[in-house]
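ligand=iron/sulfur cluster
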Amino acid sequence: MSTLEHKLTKTNETVFTAEFHTLDGNGFEKAKKVADRFRGWFDGVNATDNTAAHAHVSNVASAIAMKQLGLEPILQVVCRDKNRLAQQADIMGASMFGVENFVALTGDDVTAGDESEARRVFDLDGPQLVRLMSTIKRGEYMSGRKIDPAPHMFIGAVENPGAPPFEYRVQRVAKKYAAGAKFLQLQICYHQDRLEKFCAGVRDAGLAGKIAIIPTIVLVKGARPLNFMHNSVPGIDVPADQIARVEKAADPAEEAYLQTLEFSQHALAQPGVRGLHITDFRNDDTLERLMTDLGRVRRITTTNEDKDDHAYSA
Amino acid sequence: MTTFIATIEHVVKGPVWGCQDCGQCVLHSTGMTCPMNCPKTLRNGPCGGVRENGHCEVKPEMKCVWLKAYDRTQDWPLPATWKAEYNHLRPPVDNRLKGTSSWKNFFTKRDRWTPTGWKNSTDESAAQGADH
Ligand code: SF4
């Protein structure tokens, strides 16, 4: 059982997950650097699948690298680029290397990326992909062909509490739960009232305690990335006063940090919230500061790789 | 005959519902809104990219198909059994049916075929397994 699954299903501990950085040239060296920053802080790290419709090192390769580097990967599987056959191959491939956490999402459209001319696939949608993961976990491919032994899987999904139609988002959670999702990573939401209503809705639907809610928090250095998210990331709306607050501050970097901390504490106080998912755009010491301010203690367990530093060098 | 039915169906459903001839119609369960008009062809609800004004991530000039479906399911006087199906998990599209008549596929029950692995997975089987 993965640490993430153990903590979420057997304890009441707050969990922290993070978004791994995208890898391109010299990917393994970069992966090592990120792993050194992340190791000991997180219960799971997302191996992203062509984030924002840009091609990068694949989700499966990133997940395997993380395993070798002592991080616990969460394999993100997106519906945009691959049909159901390729998605099953990725899940089985990652599982062969010991990956146990999986998260299914629909994904941004190809038009959000830098190759808008590409064919969009969406052979399955997000909830169907969750059900497909449950099918594999049960020991069958989509066709019914047996997988013996069945891979061990802890399955999650994603939802956006900040995009319309708001009440319907909760019904989507119920659907993903029924399809087999046990945890739910939320997209970043800069409207606290929307997050509150969403979490209350999940509770009122009787799903609190059944599906662990993990809102996303983003570490940014100033107002520019806030403006970027507001203007360019589909489904993300950042209220003008939140942008102005950072923009007009005497020390924007400090104000941006305080804003993140405040949103983190607010999110953790909502019913059904079991942890936070952190996207770090700052790459400075505020990651450590945030984790410490939230009461997290860094725990580094010695892995074989740590004992022999050269075991995983490329 | 089969082609004839498909043609009639296309002529009727094309202009009114924007039918994309997927051959496995779910209009009744989606507030008479064809999910195949969603640029991502999502059959189980909206993606996370819906814009602040309720318009589509991919086509900003178009209202998100799933906002329409949601509003209509609530507001239109549709049969209760249809409305009840709104939140059902619709199975993956059977791409072999593309271009065939969903009316015929409905009467022959061909449109209810799903792969064995999908069929064997139920809400109950999916709910299990958190504790092993
Ligand atoms: S915004 Fe609505 S119509 Fe557009 S891709 Fe997403 S779900 Fe489909």
